[in-house]
Amino acid sequence: MASLESATRIGRLSSTISNSVAKLDKVLQSHGLQTPSFDEDASTNPSLPEEAVALQNVILDATSELHDLVSSPMGLLLNKTSQNNMVPFQFISHLGIAEMVPLGGQISFQEIAAKTGLNEQIIGRILRFAITMRVFREPEPGMLAHSNVSKAITDSSLNDWLKAESRDLWPAATETFDAVMKWPNSQEINETAFTLAHNTDKSVYDFFQANPDRALTFVGSLKALTSSPDYDVRHVIDNYDWQSLGHVQVVDVGGSRGNVGIQLAKNFSQLKVLVQDKEEVIRGAENDVPEEVKDRVSFAVHDIFCVIILRALVPALKHNARIIIQEACLPEPGTVPVWKESRLRAADLSMTALFNARDRTAKDWKALFAEADSRFVLESVIQPTGSALAMMDLRWNAED
């Protein structure tokens, strides 16, 4: 009976995939968008219409489940647990291999070996593993050309992201078990998997402050992350009625180098924006503010710890003041596409490895706001389509 049910399931999945792909193809064509491809010049970061995102979710979940169903248990575990998946990206990012490949052309493994000082055999083995993950192509034996994925890595911020992932975050992830066993109840920011991995007693922030080159790489990696459709600033601009606020100052706490704040100022001329973040993050950021909004975007130092942030805001808040929080909001199990839930839960574990912190559900956020001050009222939680982050509208009720 079990095998019959499995056969029925894979048949249903096959139909779902076929029908959804046909619909997605039509939607993409109707919007003048390219069909997905690994070709070098194929689109790498398209912003999709909502109907395409919905179909994308169905296809990603169905193809993943079908792949897992037709794998053996051991095959599935091998796919999920390969410790070597990050290895090619470490070589590619740190050696700058993507930039060695001419756009529209190719380069030999031998030439790459000469440029990097490594032997041709190891270069070939590393790159051929990357090729199985759709990174680069081998159009003829021993020659390397771009796929759209490897071409994307020629962007310095995406290369920084791979550097930071492979050098700073991946080693921390492998120490998560040991850190939790060593400090099972700790919430200290310097008792983490990151501190074990890097043999330091410093927090992530202090570690990067002491290693400015790595800090710059990490900041570059954040730029790559926030440039993806999941973190598109349009999610902030389009999912709150900023125009209704009138002439006010918006304080962007934890606003990094002002990406969101600058876009708010550009789109809403009545807003002044103060971006707050740690000193090492915002240092020199004012130099990157476009001239057209320079008089309405400023920066200030602020420590970033959830409850402390909220309590620090209290003295400056007037009755009915609004606090808009854009943060990860973990879904209840099974309420979002599996591929998305998996990515969110992986990010949650990264919070543990790096900061002894965690991402929160809507209930957790409500409890945190109450812990900070019972006068904070959570009005709504919106999860914009295609966004990795939720929008939470918090109101200050001074009359309670």
TrEMBL record:
Gene3D superfamilies: Vaccinia Virus protein VP39, Winged helix-like DNA-binding domain superfamily/Winged helix DNA-binding domain. InterPro entries: COMT_C, COMT_dimerisation, SAM-dependent_MTases_sf, WH-like_DNA-bd_sf, WH_DNA-bd_sf. GO terms for molecular function: O-methyltransferase activity. Residues 194-305 form the O-methyltransferase C-terminal domain. Residues 92-152 form the O-methyltransferase dimerisation domain. This is O-methyltransferase domain-containing protein. The lineage of its organism: Eukaryota, Fungi, Dikarya, Ascomycota, Pezizomycotina.
